[in-house]
Amino acid sequence: MKVTVERAHLLKSLNHVHRVVERRNTIPILSNVLLRSEGGELKLKATDLDLEITETVPAMVSEPGATTVPAHMLYEIVRKLPDGAEIELATRSDGATLDLKAGRSKFALQMLPESDFPDLTAGTFTHHFQLPAADLKRLIDRTQFAISTEETRYYLNGIFFHTVEKEGALKFRAVATDGHRLAQAEVEAPHGSEGMPGIIVPRKTVGEIQKLVEDPDAKISVELSDTKIRITFGAVVLTSKLIDGTFPDYGRVIPQGNDKELKVDRGEFAAAVDRVSTISSERGRAVKLTVGEGRLVLSVVNPDSGSATEEVGVEYDSDPLDIGFNSRYLLDIAGQLETDTAVFRLADPGSPTLIYDYDQRNALYVLMPMRV
To answer: What is its main location (predicted)?
Structure first.
């Protein structure tokens, strides 16, 4: 293999693919990136056996071929080369070394054979549709914070994507929950998503998709099967295994009968929660909300360091109520709301609370209370 490629193209591509590679690997080939040159382009591929990213960049191919070299090392070398450099990659006849040349810099990298590199893309995809990149990014941004990190409930370690009928229209919905809070967001279902299986996309894959959406105006291609998802962003193709499990019936958790409505300025509320929670212990993080007519008092008591209270003006005309929440969870949800006014629908101190944007119901959040 002998190929010449511009540093900017190679660096951008390596930046996408090298993130998949785990720093510590018991299988040596998984530390490597696959380089394949043919027909005026260089194709890069990296995988951790659950997630695979490939990207194609333009290149001048003198001799087609393929090999694998350490991903993180190659990324660091290319990152440290000067802007505008032309990089030449050539394999030696010994089959064990790749020479990298750029200006006066020369590197010799150990290779592993291309034949050892695993392929994740086998299998057929039953559903195919296109989606605006902004829609997918929005669904992920609104729900990602609620993904569970508890490995025992592995089926909660991702975002559940599925289609639902709502008010006579088909919606493409994302849901995530960790048992303490639930986030749900939806957009118009794209043509071709009808009848798709409900899928759970793993946390790591979700994070990579979020980083790969660089142009919100672009259309991305999504292909699905029962076990895999493949998303194409221009020259980048991400393929991932799905979580093999059943997502719980989240509809039962979303309260329907909460009759106490509280409206509050989102920014003012978030700032007040942030200020009073300064006093809270790292372990407890509890903030008490005392709701009365036209006013909300936030309070925190920490036996080790003191107490804090702050009053916020609100719209509320139901019975007075005291309820406690984890302050970090409140701030996470406030950070996802888009309008200036947040709406809380409350029932009692022991029941889940529903939170959403005023005049906008395409995203909603459910928060379990804490004892305070």
So the answer is: cytoplasm
